[in-house]
Specification:
- By secondary structure, this protein is an alpha/beta fold.
- It has one domain: Spore Coat Polysaccharide Biosynthesis Protein SpsA, Chain A (Alpha-Beta Complex), CATH 3.90.550.10.
- The protein has 8 helices and 9 strands.
- Helix 1 packs parallel to helix 2 and helix 7 packs parallel to helix 8.
């Protein structure tokens, strides 16, 4: 990533104004003009949509935003993947696309640290944030969230045949050229979108790196360990089989 390359950073949300009310102003104040932040609402109820419009307008009116700030709405709730695909479909001349979760579990400082780190590297196509405890990194997580995260990570590793520690961390940056190559093949609108994105990038031979981040547990997760584990396992298997059967060699245009 060069100093002049711009980033489209999407924040997917669903009835998340309460959590965004603190995180979005923080992003707007702290991110520079190289960022375009787009909040992609995933079919929230009308009251929430109006509150989100007011929040975005209020941040803009304060005149403290260093980045460009936009919002898009969907008439129906599709899932995290659907919200991200709708947001990334707004890609313009930015050299990178990315997303950060609306809960602010990965904060502003980590986004800026990831951006700065990429600026010192070359040949990287995607950065996937990772909640792994390493020297100098803090991961504040309840036992329930840790357990559900490790169960899903094991599913991804064993069923999806993906050698990563954490596919679901809420911070990712992908080179726009690489994203445009995989975009026609993305189908997963739900929680497993990250897995499909990763498998497609790997199939193209893209260089994907895991980037350890500080992460703090924020209440309000919409994923249930008991309700969603088997559904997610089936989804990972389906994604792995579908991606393995694809011929991406014929799609090399950028």
């Amino acid at each position: 990533m060069t100093q002049n390359e711009r980033i489209l950073l999407v924040v997917p949300c669903y009835n998340d104004v309460a959590r965004l009310s603190e995180f979005l102003p923080e992003l707007a104040r702290g991110l520079t003009s190289k960022f375009r932040v787009l909040v992609s609402d995933d079919g929230s109820d009308l009251k929430e949509q109006e509150a989100l419009r007011s929040l975005v307008d209020g941040v803009r009116e304060k005149g403290t935003a260093g980045c460009t700030l936009e919002v898009v709405f969907s008439e129906r709730n599709t899932g995290k993947g659907g919200a991200l695909m709708r947001g990334w479909a707004k890609l313009g001349d930015e050299a990178w696309v990315g997303f950060v979760d609306a809960d602010g579990a990965v904060g502003l400082s980590e986004i800026l640290r990831a951006e700065a780190w990429l600026g010192e590297q070359s040949g990287i196509d995607a950065l996937f944030g990772s909640r792994v405890k390493m020297l100098g990194r803090r991961v504040e997580r309840s036992w329930k969230r840790h357990l559900s995260g490790r169960i899903f990570a094991t599913m991804v590793s064993e069923l999806g045949r993906v050698p990563v520690y954490d596919s679901q961390c809420g911070l990712k940056l992908v080179r726009a050229a690489s994203y445009r190559r995989v975009a026609p093949f993305l189908q997963t609108e739900g929680f497993a979108f990250d897995v499909e994105l990763l498998l497609l990038l790997m199939k193209l031979g893209c260089r994907v790196v895991e980037f350890p981040v500080d992460w703090r547990d924020v209440p309000g997760s919409k994923v249930s360990l008991l309700r969603d584990s088997w559904r997610m396992a089936r989804e990972v298997v389906r994604i792995q089989k579908r991606v393995a059967s694809l011929d991406l060699d014929s799609s090399k245009t950028v």
